[in-house]
Specification:
Length: 85
């Protein structure tokens, strides 16, 4: 899924990247960078925080941002530590 497609799904849900980030405990810039870097890829990110952002984003919009991201299960760091970065 491309960045503009993700953005369109967020708008359909009455949100945007910044609102999604704040409501899920992520930094706004961190979310936009994760989407910018990984949108359109077929592989999954190695970084735990990026993986968690894209997985939460997929759950929020109801569609996989990356193929197989909802099938993988890893434990995400607590949300308060995500803001510390």
């Amino acid at each position: 899924m491309e960045k503009r497609q993700i953005q369109a799904r967020l708008i359909e849900h009455g949100s945007n990247f910044r609102q999604f980030a704040l409501s899920h405990g992520y930094g706004a810039r961190t979310v936009t960078q994760a989407v910018q870097r990984w949108a359109g890829h077929d592989s999954l990110p190695q970084g735990r925080l990026t993986f968690c952002i894209l997985r939460d984003l997929s759950k929020f919009i109801g569609e996989e941002v990356l193929p197989g991201i909802l099938a993988e299960s890893i434990e995400c760091p607590p949300k308060d530590s995500a803001n510390a970065q």
